[in-house]
């Protein structure tokens, strides 16, 4: 008595779904006398089947002809359940009974088995990561540029302050206050006249920090009621030289309405010459503003005015700036 148990019946829908999921072999060459397609999943295709044997391209029988190849990427069904150690079919396989040649594609790699959504997610992640890196690099580049710009600014400020040094500040401040003159202007004149060298003597004989001329000193002493005690050698004394020079700047400021250009021009070229220029329409359009200087003979006066204006700004910026601006180095 046979004890063979028939296989349990399977649901048709499950069989259809399984048929769609099962890999199929691809027929690529058939014999001209037997142009019949083998079943989609021929029994026995595999490494251990005697019916199907691997064929090298050089050994393909000339009687085989090319047929359409299924575009689906499938591998043939194994006759026996493959073990972990058994190799997967690949290359060309010949059906020795029907002289049909099949191609069993290699199994997909890790990347080949991924669904499109995986690649979309990977692309989005890559773009996001790249964007983050770009933002970080851009921020760092911006910070580096700002740091370099700040370093250059501080170095420039330090260089300017070292160039436009301020000596005898207490004497300058006191005499400037007494004469109603901006101490930064007094310092600017000293810088352009002698570079703060108390023993300086010009080629015209002017002496001291503010380069008082031999004819100007007695005139100032008369205004200060010091004619009896004044000597030209006193102009080598910083305190007395600054006192005379500050008084003269105050006098010019009253004469020229605190106009720094006219004050500097009068200090260098003389007040009477400046008054002549103001009366000349070639140099002043309104009689109060010095717009031009004679083209010949007064190039030094023009350079002197420009130097005083620049030094005036530097001393206001680095030594006489308001406390809130001076603290931040503006």
Percentage of residues in helical conformation: 40-55%
- Known CATH architecture of the largest domain: Orthogonal Bundle
What is the C-alpha radius of gyration, as a whole number of Å?
52 Å
> Low-confidence segments, ≥5 residues, pLDDT <50?
21-52, 57-89
- Our estimate of the beta-strand percent is 5-15%
Summing up helix and strand content along with how strands pair, one would put the structural category as: alpha+beta
Number of strand segments: 5
User: What's the tally of helices?
Assistant: 10
Give the CA-CA distance, first to last residue.
Answer: 112 Å
CATH topology of the largest domain: Lysozyme
Averaging pLDDT over every residue, what do you get?
Answer: 77
Could you characterize what this model shows?
The protein is α+β, with helices and mostly antiparallel strands and about 325 residues long. The protein has 10 helices and 5 strands. The chain has helices spanning about 10-20, 115-165, 170-180, 185-195, 215-225, 240-255, 260-270, 270-280, 300-320, 325, and strands at about 25-30, 50-55, 65, 90-95, 100-105. A hairpin with a 4-residue loop joins strand 4 (about 90-95) and strand 5. Helix 3 (about 170-180) runs parallel beside helix 6 (about 240-255).
